[in-house]
Sequence to fold (298 residues):
Amino acid sequence: MKTKIIDGRAMAAGVRERVAKLVATLKDRHGITPGLAVVLVGDNPASRIYIRNKGKATKAAGMNSFEHRFDASLSEGDLLKLIDQLNKDQTVNGILVQLPLPDHIDDAKVISAISPDKDVDGFHVINAGLLATGGDGLVPCTPLGCLLMLKKYAGKLSGKNAFVIGRSNIVGKPMAQLLLKESCTVTIGHSKTRDLRAECLRADIIVTAVGVAHLVKGDMIKAGAVIIDVGQNVILAPEKGEGKTRLVGDVDFEAALGVASAITPVPGGVGPMTIACLLKNTLTATLKQHGIPERELV
Ligand code: NAP
Fold:
């Protein structure tokens, strides 16, 4: 079987282009420019890169980007005060606090302080609850991006067996909820799952969000399955030279070729779609806050 390699960069470019067009129409017709505030506490190098990329993408989509950077000593109280100001600021439609936060700050307390209407990461319990009960809240960006890819590459989702490996609040659980909403028969795997291989072999769709390189081997994949690999793992790459590394997913990509019908590569699969969906969520939040249906802009 020829395996289709899902080009996440190209798909993300399409989503970003559509968002930029809608943003331009929103400005023309209503004089509204969506604004995204990103908050970074501390100097985690990976977080700094994410924040820079998010800021660039936000501006490229025609939205305002407001960056708030603090050193790691910022108190929880001062961070909560900032969140309160951003909640009240009419020019800010989306708020994203880059995780992880320093140890002295309670992530959950900060996330619950964000107004659910501005929670573009979709991590607030209100949005998690709306997703779980079939409501219309903001959905976490990474699973949303995965769903868009599955809708394009897995055909009709209804009735398919979907196996989501990983049960985190930010990827695994919301991914499973989204697939359930699409009427898939959903199984969730985690570190205590007894027979990962058997569960994988039953699945028409596998979404892995684990963080273990090459966890899913070629002989664990049912012929024709569609695989979305969220995992990002840095491994040694002696072929590139001593001490060099490379990024891989949770699936043995080479071994999946010829077995799966479609698979996302790492890098270049899920990652770019996550940022594109952040922009999509910021637009969705802006439209909801102003009571404007998206169809009015199309
Ligand atoms: P997490 O909170 O650490 O969750 C990992 C999950 O994997 C847990 O549910 C854990 O089970 C499960 N697990 C661990 N070892 C396992 C094993 N051997 N077999 C089966 N399940 C196992 O991670 P996360 O934040 O969801 O992220 C998962 C991966 O996705 C990471 O590599 C992360 O870097 C990547 N990621 C990528 C993007 C992107 O945009 N591309 C976005 C977010 C995350 P327990 O619950 O039992 O511990």
Remarks:
- The radius of gyration is 20 Å.
